[in-house]
Amino acid sequence: MRNNFPPRAAAKEPRLQMNPVATIDEAVDMVRRRAPLILGVLILGFLVSSWIGLGQRPVYEAREILQVAPPRVAEAMATTSVPETIVQRLPLLKQHVLGDTALSEIASAYDLFRISPGEPLASRTELLRDAVSLNWKTAPDGQVEVVATARMDDAEEARLVAGELGHRLVNLSVQMRIGEARATLDFLTRREAELSEELSRLETRYTNFLRAAPAVPEPGTPEAELDENGTAHLLAEMNRYQRELARLRGQLEETATQRARARIGLDLEMRRQSERLVVSAPAERPVRPVTDVRGLIVGLGGVVSAILAFGLAWTLEWFNPVIRSAEQMQRMTGIMPIVSVPHATRSSHHGAIRAWRWPRNWPRRRAATAAAG
Question: CA–CA separation, 254 vs 249, rounded Å?
């Protein structure tokens, strides 16, 4: 007999989903079961991040602010011997103050950046160069402000180093200006002496020339007509001497004036009456650090530890995909279980064995049942 019924459609195989944690309840259950592992990783991560964070020292910043004060006398008098302003000299001052020699002296004076015996001393200089800076800007009122900054892991050291930078900057500026004023005065003094000596020699030659020269006849006389060429030469030589004498006297007078002004300029520099650097805001001991990464490192360590702990717990669940509930079985296999047996602990399992007893007459009942059949 031919079967006219259409073939029955084959049952679809359930798709197996291997994700063991897909719902909030499953995540909570995973955390409960893996609580010892998660807590262990969290505690270990907290200890490691705390150890690393406490090893980082905070950074304190101290600043000393200086200003370029104008001269206390007329500017024309104050700048005759030192034509360059302090602002124009700031790059050179910065180069000297932040040079290897100056930084090495500061590091040695305050015992900064202690190094091991085998480490070169230049390493301390480089560390200090990275921790200090010198910058300047023009304030809204037109005043030029110079800021000496020091960043150290100790608040008192930051204050001392910033103050030392400002102190050295002021002293170096004074020394450079006094040195230039003194060099200018010395040059003009030597120049005046040279011109005076040269003028004295020329005057001596001119005097000797006049004594040796014959008397110049008056114009229009027969003697003047007979010695016309000699008279012209004599007059030209006299004019040359006079012009040279006038030139030297003019240079000597100008040099003497410049020397007098240079003397005044040197006195002004030594008395600090001209343009100068002054401290307007001394460096103070900072109260709070500008950079403190200890709390940040501990916090990041906690976040990383939490991610690592839950990631490790989820990885263990992934490699051990045990079905623990009817909902999980249906989600992972597509089969809805009819009966689910609850998990029994060891105590309840032994209690059930003790409560169940094998019937003593069970063999005889089985034999009677077989005979009756």
Answer: 9
Q: Which residues contact 100 (CB under 8 A, 6 or more apart)?
A: 122, 125
Which residue from 78, 82, 267, 277 is spatially nearest to 177, judged by alpha carbons? 82
CB atoms under 10 Å from CB of 201, counted, come to 11
pTM, rounded to two decimals: 0.60
pLDDT string in tens for the chain (373-residue length): 455 545 554 444 444 455 566 667 667 777 787 788 888 888 888 788 777 767 667 889 999 999 988 777 765 555 556 777 888 889 999 999 999 999 989 988 888 887 766 677 778 888 899 999 999 988 777 788 899 999 988 899 999 999 999 999 999 998 988 888 899 899 999 999 999 999 999 999 988 888 877 665 555 555 555 455 666 778 888 889 899 999 999 999 999 998 988 888 888 888 887 788 889 889 999 888 877 666 777 778 778 888 888 888 778 777 766 655 556 555 555 556 665 566 555 554 444 444 444 444 444 444 444 444 4
Strands 276-281 and 132-138: unpaired
CA 310 vs CA 25, 34, 142, 314, 321: distances in Å? 15, 9, 61, 6, 16
State the DSSP string of 279-298: EEE-----SS-SB--HHHHH
The C-alpha atoms of residue 312 and residue 42 are separated, in whole angstroms, by 11
Contact 272, 32 (CB under 8 A): no
Q: Cα(183)–Cα(144) distance, rounded to whole angstroms?
A: 27
153 by Cβ neighbours in 10 Å (0-12 / 13-18 / 19+) ranks as middle
Alpha carbons 246 and 206: distance in angstroms, whole number: 12
Helices assigned H by DSSP within the chain: 24-33, 35-55, 75-78, 86-97, 100-109, 122-131, 155-212, 222-226, 228-270, 294-319, 326-333, 346-355, 362-372
What b-and-e string marks burial along 271-289, b requiring 16 or more CB atoms within 10 Å of the CB?
A: ebbbbbbebeeebeebeeb
Measured CA to CA, the distance from residue 246 to residue 204 in angstroms comes to: 14
Cα 82 to its chain centre, rounded Å, is: 34
Is residue 49 within 8 Å of residue 305, measured between CB atoms? Answer: yes
